[in-house]
Design a protein that fits this description.
Chain lengths: 257, 257
DNA sequence: TAGTGGTCTAGACCACGTG
DNA sequence: ACGTGGTCTAGACCACTAG
């Protein structure tokens, strides 16, 4: 009965069966799975074995336990995140349009919390900003919410010496954008580099962003430079994988490949 | 004893203790953890409880079980992946240089497998290429290895009508690059859009790329366009999160934010 | 208050690679 | 051959929240 060369564990076969039902749409997003007890009866195994199967699917991000109601097929919905937004106001690629519409169509309620601190930056930041040891930074920590649910987190670091007297110190939204403030300080950011790391969240991040099991994150570390190559801003953005698609556009400038 | 408001489960506290030792460096990457039996004795709990703790850390990507030797602290090493490489030959940002060197420093042995098929493309591809139903595509499926270990997977789709007589059909490496072949066919790709999705791997991907538990992937869907906005190439790249950092550079073109 | 998943125990046997 | 983690059982009690 077992597939040749793969005498699967019972719990793996149960997981496969359920995964198949999810992928085939037989179990739809948002729909409830049978209870652990019911699955145990159906497959004639102990509850612990059913549990192993469900744990597997949980960690694949396919199902979510909602105690004490039961397990549900995860509903995933991703919004477009464009790091280039500040530099390139208007994208234009055919199949993106529908996405943009989709996103705009429903009036989701955005909100955010901002707090500003003066801190000795972590190494990863100090390196990117080219700071001397003990040189302080201002961090603007922002958490964005959509309909009350955490959406992403965003920490912007600036050299304290650069922004100490500016609006960046104020824990409110900066309407014209932080970049405009930098420009007024003679440090307009004209180029940036983004480094994207993909990993499982730390427990801190999981709590802060209310991440269920099987939810990886993308961490984007952006470093902004002035025209004379001086780093003036380092941003660490944490995006839950289930809620975002990161989009970049590439234009070839030199015809040389 | 339990923190106020957070009467943690035993296995969570064990996991926290071990995580702390890993983060503090008390347990170094590559080092072996105590056995399940030993941990059970140390914390005076059943093996199943220790197991829950270890499962947690496994799914956070912190430890790897290497049966029957024991659990080991995961060693992570990421290489730079630059989607823009074909368009921008030379990056130049201070703190990147060390990384590039790091990557080059050790003679890791790259290899790859390529196979070419003619297939009816999945919807996600047909949409991006703007194909009619039943219009066929050529896929070049490539898996890259480093020192024999799977490194990433890369499927390039081309409209069959465009490339049917070209070198793209040949299952070998194309030295001058697929883009040059497209150019010769009058379909030079001059612009592209990248969509990055972050999620847990499917079982198929996990097997193909030999992914351990707690290893998320980045899926990059790139669509390449000609100067007259015709999509000519769609690429799906799957990058194990533990082995890659995706790097983009942004240049502001319009001075308008 | 009933029923769900969450946690935990105390055992058992197995598969597998290292020595 | 040994010891590891992998799997599975058959119970038990608890915490939470929908009804």
């Amino acid at each position: 009965m077992a597939a040749r060369g793969a005498p699967q564990a019972v719990y793996v076969r149960i997981a496969n069966a359920l995964r198949g039902q999810i992928e085939s749409g037989q179990l739809e997003p948002g729909q409830q799975l049978p209870t652990e007890h019911a699955l145990g009866a159906e497959y004639e195994v102990a509850r612990a074995t059913v549990r192993q199967a469900l744990t597997l699917l949980k960690n694949e991000g396919l199902i979510i336990p909602a105690r004490p109601r039961g397990y549900f097929v995860r509903k995933i919905r991703r919004s477009i995140y464009r790091p280039q937004a500040e530099f390139r106001p208007r994208p234009h690629f055919a199949e993106m349009d529908q996405w943009m519409e989709e996103q705009a169509e429903d009036g989701r309620e955005p909100s955010q919390t901002i707090n500003v601190e003066i801190v000795n930056p972590p190494h990863e930041i100090a390196n990117r900003l080219g700071l001397k040891p003990d040189e302080m930074t201002v961090v603007r920590r922002r958490i964005r919410y959509l309909d009350g649910e955490p959406f992403n987190a965003n920490d912007s670091y600036f050299p304290l010496s650069l922004v100490s007297t500016s609006e960046i110190m104020v824990p409110h939204d900066i309407q014209r954008g932080a970049n405009e403030v930098l420009a007024e300080l003679g440090a307009r950011q004209v180029r940036a580099i983004d480094e994207i790391e993909v990993r499982m969240p730390t427990p801190t991040e999981a709590t802060q962003l209310d991440l269920g099991p099987g939810t990886p994150v993308a961490v984007i570390r952006s470093t902004g430079y002035t025209a004379d190559d001086r780093p003036v801003r380092a941003v660490v953005t944490v995006l839950p994988g289930t809620k975002h698609v990161i989009v970049f556009e590439r234009d070839r400038l030199d015809p040389d490949d």
